[in-house]
Amino acid sequence: MSVTASRTIEAPRLVQPGYSPHPVGYDDGLQLQLEVHADVVAGRSPNTLVLLEHEPVFTAGRRTTDDERPADGTPVVDVDRGGKITWHGPGQLVGYPIVRLHEPIDVVAYVRALEGILIEALGGFGVTGERIDGRSGVWVERPGLAAAKIGAIGIRVNDGVTRHGFALNCTNDLAPFSQIVPCGIRDAGVTSIREVTGRDVEPETVAAAIARAFGATDEVAA
What we know:
Layout: H1 3-8, E1 13-18, H2 26-42, E2 48-52, E3 57-60, E4 77-78, E5 85-88, E6 92-98, H3 107-123, E7 130-132, E8 135-142, E9 145-158, E10 161-169, E11 189-190, H4 193-197, H5 203-214, E12 217-220
Parallel strand pairs: 1-2, 1-12, 3-4, 9-11
Antiparallel strand pairs: 2-6, 3-5, 6-10, 7-8, 8-9, 9-10
């Protein structure tokens, strides 16, 4: 873990409830988040990093507007995280760091730490991830084109402990993003490790790099 990230996030234990061909339903993943969050808040469990793939689903943060949702009425799960609408599904790595933040709580510093961890992990697969001023997440510059988001971040903090987290596009089909305005951003694209490198690097492989970047240890069963 980078020095900046280590000052914000203490090394968590690792939980991996499912990857393709057995992705985790969104409702099941949310329930796991809530249970782990309650345990971390109460001091029954240490900081925890949940890594998984989801079954296909659109989720919308609190600031999502109607014109950013699928025009065909495709169901969307409304959630209590920050950010706007996005898609999750097979081929995309989703991470839920459920961690107690140091006092005084600095949410922006936490988001920057998550970005740094994703950038560090992506570098190991030949992808140069970058930050863009004024926009959260991790981006890839494309010559002659607008930058494309490869890693989205949306979080919530309750009782000093985080929920929700990040989604990193690995081998997933990018077509579902065309049904929405991803993260509410109309002047940028989305991309994946597959699109950038031409190689299939599966989420479970990327998860190992993310876990190392977090300093995650002591994997436990979900």
